[in-house]
Specification:
Layout: E1 12-15, E2 18-21, H1 59-62, H2 81-86, H3 91-101, H4 104-112, H5 114-117, E3 123-125, H6 136-143, E4 150-152, H7 166-179, E5 183-185, E6 189-191, H8 201-205, H9 213-240, H10 242-262, H11 266-294, H12 299-306, H13 310-325, H14 328-336, H15 338-343, H16 353-358, H17 362-376, H18 405-429, H19 439-460, H20 467-486, H21 494-522, H22 528-545, H23 552-555, H24 559-575, H25 590-598
Antiparallel strand pairs: 1-2, 3-6, 4-5
C-alpha cells in the first residue's frame, strides 16, 4: 500500500472496530480507455458517465499494486503527477470549482420554473362582452357552468344586460334550460387576475378542460430532453473536451432560454423546452466533470458534493423572482439572462489538464499547470516531464451488471433506488404548487432546508458507513410524507402538512447527496461506469413520470403523498440488501484478492 502523505489524510471510517479507508474514483474519458477515477453524476444530471485513462501516476501510486485484479478501486487518495505538480487542492482549484458551480444556477432555474409557469389558475367560461360587469358566480349559475368547461346551449345572451334584475336573469335562464337543457363546450375562458399567480401557461394557451394535460406534456418534454442529454453528454464531453462542451451547451442553453421568452406558439414552446433540457444536463455533466478533474485525491469526492450547494440557493432565488414577476414570460427572461454572464467565463476557466494530457496536448497542459502552481504558490521542478498515459481497451457493456450474484444484487437494488430517489425528490419539488399554502414560500423553504441537509450528509459520510444512514433518510422521508398525507385536506392543519413536507425534503435531500457516492463505492472499477449509466436511465424514467404525479390528487386527495410514502419506504427497504461497502483498501492477501475478483 502506498505511503499516505502527511498533508492528505485518508478518508476513513470505522466499521466493526476496523479502520477501513474509503475511496471514490471518477471516470475521466471514453469507455475505450482505462478507468481510474469513475464518476457518479448527481440526481439532477441524468446521464451515462464514461471512463478515462488516468494521467501519469506518481511513483508512490504506481508501486502500490503491481498486479491488480478487477474489482473495487483501491485508493481514493491515490494521486497523479498533475496533482503533485500544481497541488491537489489549493486557491486555484477553489476559485475554479466555485466558478463552475455557478453553472448549476440556471440549470436549477429551468428545471424548477414549471412550478410557477404551469401553476393552476381559477377559470370560467368567457362572459359575453356586454355582460362583463356581471359577477362570476351569477354568470356560472346562469350558464349552468358547474365544471367551468361547458355552458348552457340555446340561450340568447344578447337579451341580457348587466342591469337586468337577478330574478329576471334566473327566470330567463330557467326557461332556456326547460326548452333545451343541453350543455356545449366553452370555446374561450376568463381567468382570475388577483390570485398571486399571474399569467401562466394555463392562461396564455387556454390549457384547461380537455387541454389541461398539455401542461404536464410541456414539462415532460423538458425532462425527456434531460434524460436524452444525459445519455449522450458523457460521450460528447469525452470526445470534444469538457470546457468545449460546457460552453457550447451554456450558449445554447442561454439562446433557448431567451427564445422561450419571445415564443408565442405552444408547439414551438414544447420543442424549445425539450432542447433546453437536452443542453442543460450537458452543462451540468461537463461542469461537474471539469470541477472534479481540477482537483486530486480525496478532494474529488468533496468537490463533486459541494458542487450541489448552488441548487438550494437557486430554488430560493427563483421563488422570489416568480413572486415579483408573476408572469411566465418575464420569469423566463429573468432566468435566461444569467447564462449570458456565465458564457464570459470561457476566458477564465481552462480545459481539464487531465483530459488534455490523455489527448497528448502537452504544451497546453504545461501552461495550465504553471498558472495553477503559480496561483497556489508552488515551485515547479525545472525539468519535469509529462507523458500521455497508455490507453487500454475495455469492452464492458450492460450485460456485465448481471454476470455474478454480487453484481446482480447491487444492480437491481440501485436501479430501484435511483428510480425511487428521483421520483420522490422531484415529486416534492415539482409539485409544490399542488400542496396548498403559498407556493412561493413553500418553494423557498424547500430550498432552505436542503442547505443543511447537504452539509450534514457531506460531514457524516466521511465519518460513518453509508448503508444505514442512507436507508434511514429514505425511511424518514417516507414517514414525513405519510404524516403529510394524513393531514391532507384539512385546512386547519395546513401548517403541519407543510412542516412534514419540509422534513421530508430535508431527509430526501440528504439521501440524494449520499446516493451517488454510495453507488460509486459498491461498483467495481471495471464496471462502475456501466452501472452508473444504467442507474441514470432509471433516474431519467422517474423524471419523465414526475410531471404526471399531480394528476393523482384529482383522483383522490391523499393519493400523491401516499404514493411518495410507499416509494420512500420501498427504497429504504431495498438499501438494506446492499453491503456496507465494497471498498477494502487493505485487501492485500491472496484470499481477499480472490474475493475481489469474484465481484467481476
Amino acid at each position: 500500500m502506498p505511503k499516505q502523505k502527511q498533508d492528505e489524510p485518508a478518508l476513513t471510517h470505522d466499521i466493526h472496530g476496523r479502520e477501513i479507508e474509503l475511496e471514490l474514483q471518477l471516470p475521466l474519458l471514453s469507455s475505450k480507455e482505462t478507468s481510474k477515477f469513475p464518476l457518479c453524476v448527481m440526481h439532477d444530471t441524468v446521464g451515462k458517465p464514461s471512463p478515462i485513462a488516468t494521467p501519469t501516476q506518481s511513483p508512490m501510486a504506481s508501486m502500490a499494486d503491481p498486479s491488480p485484479v478487477p474489482g473495487p478501486a483501491d485508493d481514493e487518495d491515490e494521486t497523479d503527477v498533475i496533482g503533485d505538480l500544481m497541488g491537489h487542492y489549493g486557491k486555484w482549484q477553489l476559485v475554479m470549482t466555485v466558478l463552475l458551480s455557478l453553472f448549476q444556477v440556471p440549470n436549477t432555474f429551468h428545471i424548477s420554473s414549471s412550478v410557477y409557469q404551469a401553476a393552476n389558475k381559477e377559470f370560467w367560461c368567457q362572459r359575453p362582452a356586454h355582460l362583463q360587469q356581471l359577477s362570476v358566480d351569477v354568470w356560472r349559475n346562469l350558464s349552468e357552468s358547474q365544471d367551468n368547461c361547458h355552458q348552457l346551449a340555446g340561450m340568447d345572451w344578447s337579451q341580457l344586460r348587466n342591469d337586468t334584475l337577478p330574478a329576471q336573469l334566473e327566470a330567463m335562464a330557467a326557461e332556456a334550460a326547460d326548452d333545451d337543457g343541453k350543455l356545449v363546450a366553452c370555446k374561450s375562458w376568463e381567468y382570475a387576475t388577483n390570485d398571486n399567480v399571474g399569467n401562466t401557461w394555463t392562461s396564455e394557451w387556454d390549457l384547461v378542460c380537455d387541454k389541461e394535460h398539455l401542461k404536464n406534456v410541456a414539462e415532460m418534454f423538458f425532462l425527456l430532453g434531460v434524460a436524452t442529454g444525459g445519455i449522450i453528454s458523457g460521450y460528447l464531453s469525452d470526445k470534444f473536451g469538457r470546457k468545449t462542451m460546457l460552453f457550447i451547451s451554456a450558449v445554447l442553453q442561454t439562446i433557448f432560454g431567451l427564445w422561450l421568452y419571445f415564443c408565442s406558439s405552444f408547439e414551438l414552446y414544447l420543442t424549445l423546452r425539450a432542447l433546453l433540457g437536452l443542453v442543460s444536463v450537458s452543462v451540468t455533466y461537463s461542469g461537474l466533470i471539469l470541477a472534479i478533474e481540477y482537483v486530486d485525491g480525496k478532494w474529488r469526492t468533496i468537490a463533486g458534493m459541494y458542487n450541489l450547494f448552488p441548487l438550494p440557493i437557486s430554488y430560493m432565488i427563483i421563488s422570489g423572482l416568480a413572486y415579483l414577476t408573476q408572469d411566465y414570460q418575464r420569469l423566463q427572461l429573468c432566468i435566461g439572462i444569467p447564462g449570458i454572464f456565465l458564457c464570459f467565463l470561457w476566458f477564465v476557466v481552462p480545459e481539464s489538464p487531465r483530459w488534455l494530457l490523455v489527448k497528448g496536448r502537452i504544451d497546453e497542459v504545461k501552461r495550465i499547470i504553471e498558472a495553477a502552481a503559480s496561483f497556489n504558490g508552488r515551485q515547479l521542478p525545472a525539468d519535469y516531464q509529462l507523458t500521455p498515459p497508455t490507453q487500454e481497451s475495455s469492452s464492458q457493456d450492460f450485460t456485465y451488471l448481471f454476470r455474478s450474484s454480487y453484481l446482480r444484487r447491487i444492480s437491481i437494488c440501485f436501479l430501484c433506488i435511483w428510480f425511487t430517489m428521483n421520483l420522490v425528490y422531484y415529486g416534492i419539488i415539482l409539485n409544490m404548487s399542488s400542496f396548498g399554502g403559498n407556493v412561493y414560500l413553500n418553494s423557498a423553504l424547500a430550498g432552505l432546508v436542503e442547505i443543511p441537509a447537504i452539509a450534514v450528509a457531506m460531514y457524516i459520510i466521511t465519518k460513518v458507513g453509508k448503508k444505514w444512514l442512507f436507508s434511514a433518510t429514505l425511511f424518514c422521508a417516507g414517514v414525513a410524507c405519510c404524516c403529510a398525507a394524513i393531514t391532507e385536506g384539512r385546512e386547519d392543519m395546513l401548517w403541519l402538512k407543510i412542516t412534514f413536507l419540509m422534513m421530508g425534503k430535508f431527509t430526501i435531500s440528504a439521501g440524494n447527496t449520499i446516493m451517488p457516492v454510495y453507488t460509486a463505492e459498491l461498483y467495481p472499477t471495471a464496471i462502475r461506469n456501466v452501472g452508473v449509466g444504467a442507474c441514470n436511465v432509471a433516474a431519467g424514467l422517474a423524471l419523465i413520470l414526475t410531471p404526471y404525479l399531480s394528476l393523482l390528487n384529482k383522483i383522490e386527495g391523499h393519493l400523491l403523498m401516499s404514493l411518495l410514502t410507499a416509494w420512500s419506504i420501498f427504497g429504504g427497504f431495498v438499501v438494506l440488501f446492499l453491503p456496507e461497502t465494497a471498498v477494502r483498501k487493505n485487501a492485500s492477501t491472496v484470499a481477499s484478492r480472490r474475493n475481489a475478483a469474484k465481484q467481476v
